[in-house]
Design brief:
- By secondary structure, the protein is of the alpha+beta class.
- It is built from 6 helices and 6 strands; from the N terminus they run αααββαβαβαββ.
- The termini are far apart.
């Protein structure tokens, strides 16, 4: 009985000093993309993207959906087009590429066609001294 009392007193002393640390439960940490998605979901910037549903905003902002449409339309559009901003956000369907939208049976809408015309017009105005290339939707001047 004396040994048990002595063992318990030593154990209490060691625990009081903090020599043994019990492992704390591991907490899940959010990565930077998850934080950005949560920020877009709950506090969207005051632009056109706040029109869309919270769960769809990060898909559009992260370029997962480059083109969108609604189920009753025959055309696909850019997410910031006026037509899409007049539609109900609950009915939005997204596509990663134009090819994917065309395979689903949709055709390019006016906003998509207008963006393609400006890209070809810019690319055709290059001079022999310098060429203009379109890289990720931006004009890049390539010198020879």
């Amino acid at each position: 009985m004396g040994q048990l009392k002595r063992f318990l007193s030593v154990l209490l002393a060691v625990l009081a000093l903090g020599a043994f640390h019990l492992p704390a439960q591991a907490q899940k940490r959010m990565g930077p993309s998850a934080k950005a998605a949560a920020r877009l979901k709950y506090t969207p910037p005051p632009t056109w993207i706040q029109h869309y549903l919270p769960d769809d905003r990060y898909k559009i902002a992260g370029k997962v959906w480059k083109y969108v449409t609604v189920e009753v339309d025959r055309y696909y559009h850019l997410p910031n087009s006026e037509f899409m901003l007049r539609q109900s956000p609950a009915r939005v369907i997204g596509f990663a590429s134009a090819k994917e939208a065309q395979e689903a049976g949709y055709r390019p809408g006016p906003s998509v066609a207008a963006s393609l015309v400006t890209i070809t017009r810019v690319a055709s105005t290059s001079s022999p001294a310098r060429r203009v290339r379109i890289v990720n939707g931006r004009r890049v001047i390539v010198r020879r």
